[in-house]
Specification:
By secondary structure, the protein is mainly α. The chain has 5 helices and 2 strands, in the order ββααααα. A two-stranded antiparallel sheet has the order 1-2. A hairpin with a 2-residue loop joins β1 and β2.
């Protein structure tokens, strides 16, 4: 009726060796950004929301598509950012160090590649039976694990 998934009560058992959980169905609002609660999206025009703010994937178009649908979204927005910033070339970018300095100035937490590798090792160490890993389900759970309050790392 309004584009939302509604359970029918009917279930089907499918024998399989692997189940991949796709956590979430609806995008949550982001502080400071417009939000269409009926559609679960940030209203946008082909990915552009407002100057300096862009949307891709489900937050752009709602819960449709898969990872391969999101890649073209990202490529379109990357081009829009390039256009909106005057097409500055790679040599003119401030780089990772400047981004990290801005994040520190704003007291924002980020996850580095080394952090991601630690999380990956923790997920693999927490795997049960034949599963390759036990995935973290929330960002707060991942950050708690990185801060030592969550799962024990394989490195610890």
């Amino acid at each position: 009726e309004n584009g939302r998934a509604v359970g029918t009560g009917e279930t089907i058992d499918i024998p399989c060796g692997l189940v991949i959980a796709a956590i979430g169905y609806r995008a949550d609002p982001i502080e400071g950004a417009p939000y269409d609660a009926d559609k679960g999206i940030i209203p946008n025009k082909d990915g552009r929301v407002s100057p300096g703010l862009y949307a891709v994937g489900w937050i752009k178009r709602g819960p449709t598509g898969v990872i391969s649908s999101n890649r073209p979204d990202g490529e379109i927005v990357a081009q829009q950012i390039r256009e909106d910033t005057g097409g500055q070339g790679d040599l003119e970018k401030a780089g990772r160090e400047r981004l990290q300095a801005i994040l520190r100035e704003r007291q924002q937490r980020w996850v580095s590649f080394a952090d991601w590798r630690r999380l990956e090792a923790m997920e693999e160490a927490a795997a049960e039976t034949d599963a390759p890993r036990s995935k973290f389900l929330t960002v707060s759970e991942m950050l708690e694990a990185l801060d030592g309050a969550g799962r024990e790392s394989a490195d610890d």
